[in-house]
Amino acid sequence: SFPTSMPTPSPSTLPTWQPTLEPTAVPTASPAPSLAPSSVNTVLDKPYEWDVVLSDTFDGGFGPNWISSHPDAEWSPDGQILLRADGGTGAMMTTENLGSRTKGYLTLRLKFSALPVSFEEGEGFVVEYEAGKGWVEAKRFASGTDLVNGVPLQAIVELREAGNGTWPDLFGGEAFMVRIRAIGSMSADYVYIDNVVLEGKEPSPSLRR
User: Fold this and answer.
1) pLDDT at site 85
2) Which residues of the chain have pLDDT under 50?
3) Pairing between strand 80-84 and 190-201?
4) CA atoms 69, 133, 110, 172: torsion sign
5) What CA–CA distance (Å, rounded) separates 84 from 10?
6) Bridge-partner residues for 200, per DSSP?
7) Residue 116, class by beta-carbon neighbours within 10 Å (0-12 exposed, 13-18 middle, 19+ buried)?
8) In this structure, what DSSP letter does residue 78 have?
């Protein structure tokens, strides 16, 4: 179990957290659809599956897709990223520019594991993205409503950008970045982040131009 009180973290005193990944359910195969005239439109409009844009477990550091955007964003040798609030907007981890890898998707979603520690009510961390129009808050995780200190959570955050509504520019352009940012009043407020996956889904073929 987690300790009832947490000291201000330092490289030698950081608690160890090993997230448990839930097994992915294997979908049951469905029979091939009929191509009779009455069902052709239904087949064409079937949404695409999610594509993996990036996936990081941080076993050897921040990895090729993420950078530390603040001195209080640290890599833990146990294989997680530690974001310390440090009395304000706090530490953040930011992706490289993913514009060339996300352009054309109708929807993106960010999945990750998190372990929050010592956040006061209303404090926590936020997921934001930037698609050429400034940083947009996609989801805020706040103590008292969205998270419980010391309890791991599995997060899924949808990132949707309308673009101009036509293929292939439904999402993105030249720039796209995602960041996770800690928000708290003290340096003892922090969150571990691990097992981050960014996925994209293309529109159905009938939406292409």
Assistant:
1) 86
2) 1-5, 11-12, 24, 26, 32-46, 162-169, 208-209
3) antiparallel
4) negative
5) 11
6) 51, 108
7) buried
8) T
Query: What is the pairing mode between strands 153-160 and 107-117?
Result: antiparallel
Closest by CA to 130, choosing from 72, 181, 76, is 181
Mean pLDDT score across all residues of the chain: 76
Alpha carbon distance 160, 163 (integer Å): 9
Which one, of 132, 130, 209, lies nearest residue 170 by Cα?
Answer: 209
Give Cα separations from 112 to 20, 24, 54, 156, 158 (angstroms).
12, 14, 12, 7, 12
Q: Give the C-alpha separation, 192 to 125, whole Å.
A: 10
Angle subtended at Cα 50 by Cα 199 and Cα 38, rounded to the nearest 5 degrees: 155
- The strand pairing partners of 177, in sequence order, are 130
Closest CA to 172 of 200, 206, 207, 140: 200
Locus of tokens 């520690």: 117
At which residue do the structure tokens 């990944």 appear? 21
Element (H, E) at 157: strand 153-160
